[in-house]
Amino acid sequence: MKRAITFLLTVCFLANAFQGISQTRRIDSLLREMKSAHTDVQKLKTALAICEDYKAVSRDTLDFYAFYARQLAEKTNNKVLKDLAELAVASDYLRWGWGDSVLVTVTPLINRNKVGNAEERSVYFKALRLKALSYGSKSRFQEALEVLYKIINEAEQYKDTLALGENLNTIGSIALARNNPKEALKWLSRVGALELDRPEFKNIQGAVYVNMAEAYLQMNKIDSAGFFIKKGILIFKETENMFNLAMALQKQSAIFIATGQLHEAEQSLKEMIQYRSESGDRDMYLDDNISMIDFYIETKQIDKAIELCKQVLATGNLHNNEGDSSRVFANNINIQLEYFKKLSQCYKIKGDEKLYAETLEKIINASDSFYQVNSAEAIAELQTKYEVQKKENTIMQQTMAINRKNSRFYVLTIIAVFVVLTLAIWFFSFRKREKYKLRTILEKEKLLAAQSVAKAEENERKRIAADLHDNLGTFAAAILSNLDLIQPLDEAQSKSAIHELRNNSQAVVSQLHDTIWALKKDALPLTSISDRIKLFIQRIQPSYPNISINVVEKIEQDDTLSPAHAFHLFRIIQEAVNNSLRHSKAKEIIIGIQSNDKEWSVTITDDGAGIDINNTKGNGLINMKERAKEAGMKIEWVVGEVSGTKVIISKDTLVTT
């Protein structure tokens, strides 16, 4: 049995953008949650959740919570919550059939939410869909299709499968409303090609099955229609989507009527009416009433069919219904057209030729008005426009794919160059590190070798000092001791020889002590050197009673010298003092020792006759210079303008320990 489906709400709602898990338990749970909410934000979010399933609640309840959500949203500065509240109000207007109010509400939402912004895209698609449904509620199919084509183009571009699936299904619904089931199946098959495994796609899939059942019913393929309507009903029962389930039961009743299964058709209609009554939509939808009229006709209850047609064909204000919020007036010309067709069929069956003729005239007038708005040429033009747009999108996507491949090639090339450069840098850096390691190893080996030599020298030095002390020193001390046991002879020559032998022995012992003093130490501070000089002065002072020899210390930081360097410094000071004693005829000799955190110096100053350093030749001065050079010290002589000589010894490149 073929019949037109002209009211877009009948089929467009089947692919509702705001799918809910349940239309009974979920709403009850949300209403309980609303009672327990304490803050305005909690109440707002709960109210929005109730309005999201705007077909699962009665129109009065939806009306209350939609405007309550708008009121709460105005108190916030959250743009998303405000936009969602406006969507709730627009859904409420659509539920009441106020298409113009829907357009006024969603237009600002469409303008201020951009499809290119991922955070705004969902609101954008929902607002556009409500706009299309508002056109459909007025049977303005051409305008509805223009919006729907725009949605699916952009949904394909941004890979929004949910928006794409529900709006493809709605385009198929419009094709069914225009009695073009083959075109409808083309659009519905595209939905079937999408990935619909996620839970939120369940209701879309069920809606597609119901629309496919309607398409096969229009094509008089009753078995296929029955197969798909059962699949749709099972899904809606599983998801507890009562609105869509009522719609599916209405389709099922039509299929039962077509096969003569009137009892089953009646049961489906009763179940449908129960669900409609629970949601407050008893007389809201065209197909429900058409199904009832068809049932009355098939069961020969023609008067009931005529009465229902007249009741629905009444026009008036939607809210002027004497408190019955389920009452809906058929103000739309397209809605009236379907009821006129059924009414004329009833008059024909009764044989009332006069009323039959009058009704046919009304059908002709209504058809003219309808086709002026929704001409086949205009819709075909829109479809052509969509196909062109689709091809342009395909070309654009191919261009983008080529650009992506080029970009990928350039990126890979850059990465390859970068990798090569990185490897080259790493290789040269590795070579540099290896050279540095080799150089470090060689230097370490040199250092270890030097340390080994120094340690060997140190051990040898200590051994020599020990040998000098234990052997030569012992014998020198023994000689000096034995001289004391020899009785001096009367002869002056013997006395002189013995005296000289004693002096030499004492000198040998003193020299040995000084050498051993230096060699036995690991390091010698300036204070230790100063103390040794004082001992030296004590030994020689008795031989020069007329000459004053003093040591003046100004040691702020006690620098340390290696044994060899300390011994050289001590010998230089000895030689400088001996030179002053022997050659300068000085009355006073001052040895000054100074040091701070930067440098140290030793000065030997006398008030003697002075010295001509340039014309003076002697082993003593040469030895002093050689010792200073070997120890890394500077030595210089400063002669006074009148008399006196100053010898200055200071640190040069000496490394102290």
Provide a descriptive summary of the structure in words.
By secondary structure, this protein is α+β, with helices and mostly antiparallel strands. Among the domains are: about 100 residues, Serine Threonine Protein Phosphatase 5, Tetratricopeptide repeat (Alpha Horseshoe); about 130 residues, Heat Shock Protein 90 (2-Layer Sandwich). The chain has 23 helices and seven strands. A five-stranded mixed sheet has the order 2-4-5-7-6, with helices on one face. A hairpin with a 4-residue loop joins β4 and β5. α10 runs antiparallel to α11, α19 runs antiparallel to α20 and α22 packs antiparallel against α23. The longest helix has about 110 residues. The chain is rod-shaped.
SSE inventory with pairings:
Elements: H1 8-12, H2 25-36, H3 40-52, H4 59-73, H5 79-96, H6 99-112, H7 121-137, H8 141-157, H9 161-177, H10 181-192, H11 202-218, H12 222-239, H13 242-258, H14 262-278, H15 286-298, H16 302-313, H17 333-350, H18 353-373, H19 376-485, H20 492-519, E1 524-525, H21 526-540, E2 548-555, E3 560-561, H22 563-583, E4 588-595, E5 600-606, H23 619-630, E6 633-639, E7 645-651
Parallel strand pairs: 2-4
Antiparallel strand pairs: 1-3, 4-5, 5-7, 6-7
